[in-house]
From TrEMBL:
InterPro entries: Anthracycline_SecMetBiosynth (IPR052164), Glyas_Bleomycin-R_OHBP_Dase (IPR029068), Glyas_Fos-R_dOase_dom (IPR004360), VOC_core (IPR037523). This is VOC family protein. It comes from Streptomyces mesophilus. Residues 140-255 form the VOC domain. Pfam families: Glyoxalase. SUPFAM superfamilies: Glyoxalase/Bleomycin resistance protein/Dihydroxybiphenyl dioxygenase.
Length: 258
């Protein structure tokens, strides 16, 4: 089995995608920033391309349908072995299934949903396409975090849908919960209280690995993007928060050595 076809345990982030208005301009931005190349398809997803890095599929970019007025944002997909059951559990647990389940050619099946606080995420049931390949190298997604008002209000939802284990950070002023699969932290929920952006609400955010955070931030500006928060130390390593020319925010990080 090839790396890209490897199965991810249920709940593990296995893919990220971005829906934009201008596909060509977005490809130019990320191609120049991360060295991505692009292949078209699956056709069922409309105008859509898969980003490749050194031959490994790392992300997807599609065109936002004209009748949808959604934020331009990176969306993580969490793995499922049974998409129909996952869809039912999402609904029964207070979430909403907005799109799907859909067939994506022979690659697999997907749906897009939102949790009880309104944060949008995807779910992927793999067939031929298991998800991200070449994980951990610069230019690939390495972490996903849910930014929401408080962890307690949504942790029960994600635990019910995906069976996550939970590892809270014990701190008087830091509401943070790591989500684990088979004993390994795979994502996190960060409760920010009134610090939640009013224009975005609860949302998932993706971290992309880079070799040099300062250089990447400089390149973002040169390529027409925006710096939302400059380089700073974090629990993940040196990182910065930036946005592409259409406003999709993401984090770039030079992961700390474990």
């Amino acid at each position: 089995m090839t790396e890209s076809a490897a199965r991810h345990a249920p709940g593990t982030p296995c893919w990220v995608s971005l829906m934009v208005h201008g596909l060509a301009g977005t490809q130019r931005f990320y191609g120049a920033l991360f060295g991505w190349e692009f292949l078209p398809g699956p056709q069922q997803l409309g105008p859509y391309v898969r980003a490749l890095l050194d031959g490994h599929e790392v992300a997807g970019i599609g065109v936002m349908p004209h009748d949808r007025h959604l934020p331009i944002a990176w969306t993580p997909y969490l793995a499922s072995d049974d998409l129909d059951t996952t869809a039912d559990t999402i609904r029964h647990s207070g979430g909403t299934v907005g799109v799907g389940p859909l067939e994506a050619d022979r690659a697999g099946r997907l749906l897009i949903a939102s949790d009880p606080a309104g944060a949008v995420f995807g779910v992927w049931q793999a067939a031929e396409h298991g998800g991200i390949g070449g994980a951990g190298r610069p230019g690939t997604p390495v972490w996903n975090e849910l930014v929401t008002r408080d962890t307690a209000s949504v942790a029960k939802f994600y635990r019910a849908v995906f069976g996550f284990g939970e590892e809270p950070v014990v701190s008087a002023d830091f509401d943070y919960l790591a989500l684990s699969v088979e004993g390994r932290a795979v994502a996190a929920i960060h409760g920010v209280g009134h610090g939640l952006p009013r224009d975005r609400g609860a949302h998932w955010t993706t971290f992309f690995e880079v070799e040099d955070v300062d250089e990447t931030v400089r390149r973002v500006g040169e390529l027409g993007g925006h710096v939302l928060r400059g380089p700073h130390d974090s629990g993940h390593g040196l990182m910065a928060t930036v946005a592409d020319p259409e406003g999709a925010a993401f984090n770039v990080v030079r992961s700390a050595a474990e």
